[in-house]
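Need tokens for this chain, all 187 residues.
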Amino acid sequence: MGKVTWGFTSSIDGFIAGPGHDMSWMSAAEPLAEGTTERMAGAVAVIISGRAGYDAAKAQQDERDEMTSEAYGGAWSGTEFVLTHRPEEIDDDPNIIPLNCDIVEATRRAQEIAGDRDVQIISADIGRQALEHDLIDELQVFVAPVFLGDGVRIFDVPGGRRIDWELVEIYEDSPRSFGRRYRPKSR
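Here are the structure tokens for all 187 residues:
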């Protein structure tokens, strides 16, 4: 079975999206080495995303560049689950599967589809929920050299519990992006 990963690029001050899920700041990110995006995308069979990010991407589709308009800049193909309490509002989009269930059920369904490939979470809130249930096998972290000051925080859980991570890999082919992979120390 593949891993359940939570992957993101963040600003130095800990945001994965600007206000209103704005992604224009990603232009400040350092370019990855040739083939890195495609290699990472090829490992992922299923993406689990959230409704707020989905709605923002639809609303901003004419404003987003090629890297932020589609997962992995368009290098990825597979199944995308969008977790929502109102699936009927988006069930006409043939590119996604809207689900009204908790992260445990969504992950179980995703792993059935993914087989030996990975399930990738691309939402701060859903990543937080997955951590609460110890579902995350790996973090994939990139850092863009920008302070956003506001937006969607990577992890914002007042009163939450501490989770320690151990370094698994430094993306040596893209050192300017600070790319790292971590796994929970408790596993």
